[in-house]
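Throughout our pipeline, every protein is held as a single compact record rather than as scattered files. The record that follows is passed on verbatim for readers who wish to inspect the format:
___
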Amino acid sequence: MAMVVSGKEPGKGQQAAALAMDSGKYVRYTPEQVEALERVYSECPKPSSLKRQQLIRECPILSNIEPKQIKVWFQNRRCREKQRKEASRLQTVNRKLTAMNKLLMEENDRLQKQVSQLVYENGYMRQQLHNTSVATTDTSCESVVTSGQHHHQQNPTPQHSQRDANNPAGLLAIAEETLAEFLSKATGTAVDWVQMVGMKPGPDSIGIIAVSHNVSGVAARACGLVSLEPTKVAEILKDRPSWYRDCRCLDVVTVIPTGNGGNIELIYMQTYAPTTLAAARDFWMLRYTTGLEDGSLVICERSLTPATGGPAGPPAPNFVRAEVLSSGYLIRPCEGGGSMIHIVDHVDLDAWSVPEVLRPLYESPKILAQKMTIAALRHLKQIAQETSGEVPYGGGRQPAVLRTFSQRLSRGFNDAVNGFADDGWSLLGSDGVDDVTIAVNSSPNKLLGSHVNTSAMFSTLGVGVLCAKASMLLQNVPPAMLVRFLREHRSEWADCGVDAYSAASMRASPYAVPGVRASSGFLGSQMILPLAHTVEHEEFLEVIRLEGHGFNQDDVILPRDMYLLQLCSGVDENAIGSCAQLVFAPIDESFADDVPLLPSGFRVIPLDPKTDSSTATRTLDLASTLEIGSGATACSVKETASNAYNLRSVLTIAFQFTYENHLQGNVAAMARQYVRSVVASVQRVAMAIAPRPGCQIGVKHPPGSPEAHTLARWVSRSYRAHTGIDLFRVDSQASDSLLKLLWHHSDSIMCCSLKASDSMEASPVFTFSNQAGLDMLETTLIALQDITLEKILDDGARKVLCSEFPKIMQQGHAYLPAGICMSSMGRPVSYEQAVAWKVSNEEDSPHCLAFMFVNWSFV
């Protein structure tokens, strides 16, 4: 590189620099020049030509450098910055992979130990069975089993003596026992762990998730990596109400320091009941925090019972005392920063105290894993991303503020479902039918909390909150699909008049009184405005704007939009044991951070089917087919349909309203009737989207038709054969690649049945659609078969299609002009062009008719 000549003759130095630049060589910049350029780069990494010329004029030490060289310097500087960021990213990924590799090796060692133990136990049992058979034929010898029983009677298992609550040594002994049992579950073979379906380990995955098999109670285990230091991780995990949505309260009653630098805490915790049909649970437990010799941090806990010893917990009416078996968190520091976490949750929720139909909610380790174990890991990863600045602000608010909104919505809905007396709730008498429960709360300030401003809310409206709630059992309805439909099609179940009344309670205005009704003839629409979502998009917060609502008061129409703050979660059909929930609360236009919220909504919790096979817990629609791949075709269609048809879930509905004292009866009657109408609407929707017995779940085909992969190949091949154009721009012709391309194609592609009569008079029904087609028709894969072709095409399109049908059957395809079609919800959809072609099978026999609607949009 050429040097900038410096000396006593500046003129010669500038001439030499000019000659160097003219000769095409680079300039070596002085430290002062580099410092000046760095200052500019920090403010503007990519300056314009005018900016570079201005820099040369205003900075004398750069006057001997050409603008072109300045431009090259900035290019090189941006390239170095990009390389630095990429190197840093690769180092981070490498650290994650190294830590994950270490985690997987440890998991592999644990599994090998478990296999060795099972082999040993299997051999031992074989020997016992052989000895037992010999002993039964020889009465002169004592049976090994009998001998074992006598030995057990002579040496009974020692019981824990009752330990004094004021004796720290006794509590420390319990804590050390808890620590040993927890470590044997987290890293040993004390529990037979079975990995959950769909939980694949990787540097960006949530972690390695497993559930218990054949143990007392239910248990779940997780191993994962987070980019937070161990002390920060411990602080977050101890704050259970911040991430465990079912935790109502957690009170630390006593803290006892231990000699090893740790501490023992006596904790009382209450949790919400998931439905109105069961009582809430509470726990009295010991939590032990300590460090290990290898630098790891351990937080372990267990319930204190008469069997374990220790002080008795506080009594709580209307709660069922559940038990935490040895559980906790093992937090190990990683090289280069971050932590490696092992989580074990092991509880006995006293399932026998609930109705038999609800016991799967308390006996399913998958539900426990989703609610507690995975939730803890997800929360840690969310905090880590927010700390690193990877999470953008939504609506101008910091992520922590938006997370608080989500917690308040979830907590408010749980409070409404449970209706605790110490929160001020009391039951109203029924109207003779016990399908809907009405509860009132005359202390809304206590209910909403001191951190919100309730003065505006109750300045003109009354002094109480009323909740109407109901629970019901659903058969053969995937929870995620139902909640997704309720979210996207609010008009199918909501009443705009009730929405108007709820919205009025959020406004301190003269007309915000009961009796406000929606203007007649109103037909509004909703607009979803996203605010935030979690790392894996399993939960998202959004604002719903209900457009065009008009309030009618004293024959004066006052048009005004309404707004809802909404939390939606659990809409991934592949998440096993996940609870699907849609919770919303009316807000005003200001949407302040301390806005009072009265959440209402729906919660759908799956009940594990009786069979334990993996196929019984997996929704085999097209989306899961894309993830599972061709291996899923090994399961028969009949078995898949049978398992999905046996799916059961519990739906809980709760709606909250404000009221004035003298109108309590009127509001209660309105709320009761409204919830009944919502229940009826949900039942109608559930019947519409539920799969039929004997039908394949997911892609709808007639009996004997091909699988989705085969259909994708036929659709693509037939389109290319008839039009001479490739439907997908891809080199690979693998079936799984074609299916993914078909599913994600931007245009709407649908297949409908082709009758043997080769005419359009038989009302063909749709048997398949990609994602764009489902969006256009506003339907689901399961409800697709109920839609006929003639229902969505207008008169003009039907006439054109009938006239072109002979051409399609003879020549293989036809181009249809632009037109209008109707979605299943009655909304008009325009498209620029439609292509219809005949899909043939391997024998070149007509199989179905395919349509592609190009550049469609809602009118």
Observations:
- Residues 40-118 form one domain.
- The chain has four domains: 40-118, 168-388, 399-447+460-509+524-548+560-609+646-689, 706-858.
- The mean pLDDT is 76.
- The two ends are 63 Å apart (CA to CA).
